[in-house]
Amino acid sequence: MHIWDNTDPQDTGYPSLGVQGFVCDLLFLIRKMIQQTVLVFLTISTGAFGLPNPRILGNECSYKDFNLITRAGWNARPARSPTSLSTPVELVIIHHSYQPGACFNTEDCSTAMRSMQDYHQLSNGWDDIGYNFAVGSDGQAYEGRGWDRVGAHAAGFNIRSIGIVLIGDWVSIVPPEIQLETTKQLIAVGIQLGYISPEYRLVGHRQVRATECPGEALFKEISTWERFSPDV
Ligand SMILES: [Zn+2]
């Protein structure tokens, strides 16, 4: 019996990159460069000076169907030494947190993220929160280790998978529809960005380790998803 999800103790970790390297930040950087280029062009072409600097939003990335809260957004502690994930991965592994329980707004989900990071990093001595991403019952995704760092969530499978935790206890009830939908959309984004193979296999944590995770109800739910595989 475990209180927390039984994540992988063979942690390899990654460094204090904060949100650097994450695609959202790259997008913001590109957007900033474009804005500044346009600003310079306007300044030169109109002779106008003193235009306001472009305002860059740094803690959130808005996709078509959901928001992604970056590490800065949930006030993550920096991670440690890096291990790059070889992508695209062939496996997506689904977890539940069990505890912390379900969260329904950014503040509570951010608190849940910090508590998971505290447990993994301070109590277990790992380099960072174990999961690559989390999804809350608020329908938002939260950046864990991100797309391109090896996680610590499924022993023996971390180097070839993306681990997504659906925050909450999903033993007897399924997550809200919006949480399920965001999880699917997050995987779709991972495919679009080239981090997840289009031929990926979706599995639950229990298929690669003796654990109740991701909860009986959630496991039954993901068993109906398109890319679910009974074989790892
Ligand atoms: Zn798990």
Automatic annotation (TrEMBL):
- Which top-rank group of organisms is this from? Eukaryota
**Region forming the signal peptide:** none
The record places domain N-acetylmuramoyl-L-alanine amidase at 77-215
- The residues covered by the Peptidoglycan recognition protein family domain are 66-209
Read off the CDD domains from this record: PGRP
SMART domains in the record, alphabetically? Answer: Ami_2 (SM00644), PGRP (SM00701)
Q: Give the UniProt keywords, A-Z.
A: Immunity, Innate immunity
- Coiled-coil ranges per the record? none
Note the InterPro entries from the entry.
Amidase/PGRP_sf, Amidase_domain, PGRP, PGRP_domain_met/bac
Sorted alphabetically, the Gene Ontology BP terms of this entry are: innate immune response; peptidoglycan catabolic process
Q: Name one GO molecular function term.
A: zinc ion binding
Q: How does it assemble?
A: Monomer.
What the record says about family reads: Belongs to the N-acetylmuramoyl-L-alanine amidase 2 family.
Indicate what this protein is called per its UniProt record: Peptidoglycan recognition protein
Give the species.
Pararge aegeria aegeria
